[in-house]
Amino acid sequence: MKSRRRVIIVVIALVAVAGAVFLYFLPQPGTKTFSSPSALTVNGNARAIGVDPDHLSFAWRVGDPRPGARQTAYRIIVAGNDDAATTGEDVVWDHTVRSAQQAFVAYAGPRLESGRQYWWTVQTTSVASGEGDTTPRVSGFAGAIAFVTGVRDADWRAKWIGLDGVDATNQLADTSWIWSRFTR
């Protein structure tokens, strides 16, 4: 009987401790928990390499967890280094607009260099509809992600690799390929 009582007391104590821990980690009334935007992409790719520098589009997912939350504005920064959002150095394009658009946002800044790495980040403002907290919230900047522009046709410099001065267009005409033995 004593061991059964001990088990019941231990179970009640564990439930009380678990409940206290759960309540401790719940957001308190009046706090503004708001995540930064996530899932940043360039032309639909999280790791964009060789993207057309003249046709870029950005996308992200808003981090506001409130029911009915929707974006009302955004700020995009494109820079030549990954910490431009905090330092303001080497910023190529800093664009703020009131818009709910969060996909296929076209780059409209200065001409980007071809074959160069850039970083971009976004900050959003959102509001929630319905009951509860409907105040606008501004997120922090998302972690900057890199993209590399491709080489424009005008910037492409290449030369055919081969023997200099030798016409190699018909060099393989009399070559016997391994699979030609089986087809004759």
List keywords for this structure.
Immunoglobulin-like; 3 helices; alpha+beta; 184 residues; 17% helix; 6-stranded mixed beta sheet; 3-stranded antiparallel beta sheet
In short, what is this structure?
It contains three helices and nine strands; from the N terminus they run αββββαβββββα. With 184 residues, the protein is α+β, with helices and mostly antiparallel strands.
Give an overview of the whole structure.
The protein has helices at residues 2-25, 84-87, 180-183; strands spanning 38-42, 48-51, 57-61, 70-79, 91-97, 105-106, 117-127, 137-138, 145-149. It is α+β, with helices and mostly antiparallel strands. The chain has a domain at 39-153: Immunoglobulin-like (Sandwich). Strands 2, 4, 5, 7, 8 and 9 form a 6-stranded mixed beta sheet that branches. A 3-stranded antiparallel beta sheet has the order 1-3-6, with no helix packed on it. It is flat, with a radius of gyration of 29 Å.
Fourth-tier CATH superfamily name of the domain at 39-153: Immunoglobulins
**Which regions are unreliable across 5 or more consecutive residues at pLDDT < 50?**
20-31
> How much of the polypeptide forms β-strand, as a percent range?
25-35%
Number of strands: 9
Fold topology:
Elements: H1 2-25, E1 38-42, E2 48-51, E3 57-61, E4 70-79, H2 84-87, E5 91-97, E6 105-106, E7 117-127, E8 137-138, E9 145-149, H3 180-183
Parallel strand pairs: 2-9
Antiparallel strand pairs: 1-3, 3-6, 4-5, 4-7, 7-8, 7-9
